Amino acid sequence: RAPGRPYGLYFGAMASHEIWWDGTLIGGSGVVGRTKEAEIPGRIESHYQVPDRLVTPGVHTIAVRASAFHRGFSPQAGYWELVGGNYDTILEARSRDAHLALIALSGILLTGVFAFAMYGLTRRDRSFLLLGTLCASAAGLLVAEAWRPLFGYTYDWHIVRLVATVVLSWLTGVQLVALVIARFPHRTGSLWLAAVATACTIGPFIPRGWDPKSVLIFVVCFVFAALWTGWAALRRLSGSLLALLGCGGATVALFLFPYDWLDMGVYFALNFVFVCLLCSHALEVRREQDQKARLELEMLRMHLQPHFLMNTLTALSEWIEAEPKTAVRMIESLSEELRILGGMASRSLVSSDEELRLCRSHLTNMGLRKDVRYELETDGVDGSRLVPPAIFHTLVENAITHGPAAAHVTLRLRERRDGARIEYVFEAPAEESGAPNCPGSGTRYIEARLREAWGDAWSFRQERAGSLWRVSIAVPA
C-alpha cells in the first residue's frame, strides 16, 4: 500500500460472491445461494475499497464465499482472479484495455464511414461495400471485447459475450478474405472463399477454450489473406503491395503474440490492415480514374478522327449540290451520332438501346456517304441491359472499314444468356482473304472498356466463320 492512498481489491469470477477481510464483509455482488433458484447472478468484475481501519501492518485473511449455478456452460478452467493493491491503480489497470479498444474503434469507424460513403458515390464498386461491412464487424468485435471492462455485466451473460466474440471473429475474418478476393479477383475466388468459410466454421470446434476458437479463425483468415495478396503482388496487380503489407503484418503480429491477441493485439492489427487496404484501394481508384479519362479521350479520338470528318464533309458538300434533301439527312444523322457520342463519353456504362441508336446513326451516315444500304439486325438484345460505351459502335466501324464492297450490307447482333453470363455475338461480312480485323486500337479499346466494367470476369473472341467475321463478348449477367 502506498502511503496516503486507499487499498483496494479487484475480484473477477463467473460467480456470485462475497468478499471478507479478516472476518469483515467489505462487499459482494449478486446473492450467493446453495441452489440455482436461491442464487442471483453477480457482476463478473468488481472493485472494492478496503476501509483504512482494516488495512494495518501484518498478515490478513481474505475469504471468498461464492456460488456459480448460472454460467450456462462448463468452462475448461474457471475464471477466478483476485488482485490487491492501490485502489486507483487497480481501477486504471482494468480500464486501460477498454480505452485502447475505444481508440482503435474510432479509427475503424472512420474507415467504415468513408468506405460506405465511397460506395454510395460509386455504386458499382463492391470492394468499398465489403470494406464498410468489414469495419462494422470489426467494430462489433472490439465492442464485445471491451464490454466487460467498460460496461460490465452479470456473469450469466458471459457465455453470450463469448459466443458473440467468436461469431464476430468469423464475420471479420471471412469478410477480410472476401475483400481481398474482390480486390484481386480470380476465377477460382468463390471456391477459395467457400473453403475458408467452411474451415472457419469447423475449426472452432477443435479447441475447448473460447479465446483459442477466435484465434484459430484469425490464423486461417490472415494467413490466407496474406498468401492471396502475395500472389496478387507477384501478378503485379495495382495496390497489391500495400494490401500485402497490411495482411502480412497482421499475420506476423498474430503469431508473435497469440496469447494477447484478443486482449490487445487485434485492436491495432485490424486498424493497420484497414489503413493499408484503404490506401491500396485509393490508389486503385486513382488509377481507374486516370484510365477512365484515357478511355474517354480514346473513344472520342477513334470516332472523331480528322480523316473521318474530312471524308464526311467532302461527301456532304457533294450532296448539297446534287441532292440537298440527302445532305439534310446526312447532317441530321451526323449530329445525332455526335450528340449520342458526346453524351456517353464520361460514363462507364450505357444502356444497350443508347448504344444501338449510336450504331444506327453511324450506319445511316456511312450509308449516305458511301451510297451503300447498311442494316443492323438484332436478336434478343435487352435494351435496358448496361454495356460499356461504344463497344458495339467500334465493332460496326471495323465491319464497315474492313468489310467487302457491296450495295447492301447486313450486320447482325444477338444476345443470349448462358447461366450466369450474357454473350453478345456480332457477325459481319468478311473479305475473302485475310482477317477483317487484326488486334488493333479498336480491339484494345473494347478490352479496356470490358476490364474497366467487369475486371477479369469477361471474355472477348473474334474469328473468321466462313464468309463472316464473328465476334463473341461474354460478360457477367
Look at the helices and sheets and give the structural class. alpha+beta
For the terminal residues, how far apart are their CA atoms? 72 Å
Strand content: 15-25%
Q: Which strand order do you get reading across the main beta sheet?
A: 8-10-11-13-12
Flag low-confidence runs.
none
Rounded radius of gyration (Å): 34 Å
* Share of helical residues: 55-70%
Descriptive account of the structure:
By secondary structure, the chain is α+β, with helices and mostly antiparallel strands. It is built from twelve helices and 13 strands. It has helices spanning 87-122, 126-150, 158-183, 189-202, 210-234, 240-256, 261-303, 306-322, 324-344, 352-370, 391-402, 441-454, and strands spanning 7-13, 16-21, 24-29, 45-50, 62-67, 80-86, 350-351, 373-379, 386-387, 408-418, 421-429, 459-465, 468-476. The strands form four sheets. The chain has a five-stranded mixed beta sheet with strand order 8-10-11-13-12, covered by helices on one side. Strands 4-1-6 form a three-stranded antiparallel beta sheet. Helix 1 (87-122) packs parallel to helix 7 (261-303). The longest helix has 43 residues, at 261-303. The mean pLDDT is 83.
